[in-house]
Each structure stands twice: as structure tokens, then as C-alpha cells.
Design a protein that fits this description.
Layout: E1 4-7, E2 10-13, E3 18-24, E4 34-39, E5 45-51, E6 57-59, E7 67-72, E8 77-82, E9 91-96, E10 106-111
Parallel strand pairs: 2-10
Antiparallel strand pairs: 1-3, 3-8, 4-5, 4-9, 5-6, 7-8, 9-10
Length: about 110
């Protein structure tokens, strides 16, 4: 099992940006695919994006162009850069490892 720790959340103004980090504990991190999800208040958890070990990335259509996933294998870290945020992006953001392990989440609140 992997341990995943998210960070980088906080209070952001409408139109602002945030960069989330997900640090994983595994020794073969470069072989991993990592997903980002979010859960907004009163809503189901929503898949956002994935980075595969070979470099392929995919996005939920509604965040494509605003969110960018990237990884630094030397630091066992995956990032989620989020731009042009709006109140509907307010949620707890989670990363998920290749074996179904989840981090504790990081709260992003977008305020007008």
C-alpha cells in the first residue's frame, strides 16, 4: 500500500490559481498512475484527471484547459495546477494511487 499526502489547498479568490501537491511513498513511483478527484459539498466524488507512468494524461472535460496535472518522479510528487478558479471548484481534493490508496484530501475554497 502507498501513503499519499496532499497539500496546497486554501482560500482562493475567484479567477485565482492554486497548485496542489500529492506526495507518494512508493519506491517505484515512476511506474505509478495517479488520479486527482474532488468532492464538493453535497455532491459525489468526481474524477478530474490522471497521469500515467508513460506520460499520458487525461482530463474531465469541464476542467480541461484550466487544470494541468504534472509529475516529478524524482520527488515522488504529482501536482495539480488549477487556474481561473470559480466557486464551483470549491471542494476537498484528493489524489489516488495505483492500488486504490487515497490521501486525506486538501480543502480548496474559492471565494468571491
Amino acid at each position: 500500500q502507498e501513503q499519499l499526502v496532499e497539500s496546497g489547498g486554501g482560500l482562493v479568490q475567484v479567477g485565482g490559481s492554486a497548485r496542489l501537491s500529492c506526495v507518494a511513498s512508493g519506491r517505484t513511483f515512476s511506474d505509478y498512475h495517479i488520479d486527482w478527484y474532488r468532492r464538493a459539498p453535497g455532491k459525489l466524488r468526481e474524477w478530474l484527471t490522471i497521469t500515467h507512468s508513460g506520460g499520458k494524461v487525461l482530463y474531465l472535460d469541464s476542467v480541461k484547459g484550466r487544470f494541468t496535472i504534472s509529475r516529478d518522479n524524482a520527488k515522488n510528487t504529482v501536482y495539480l495546477q488549477m487556474n481561473n478558479l470559480n466557486p464551483e471548484d470549491t471542494a476537498v481534493y484528493y489524489c489516488k494511487g495505483p492500488h486504490g490508496d487515497w490521501g486525506q484530501g486538501t480543502q480548496v475554497t474559492v471565494s468571491s
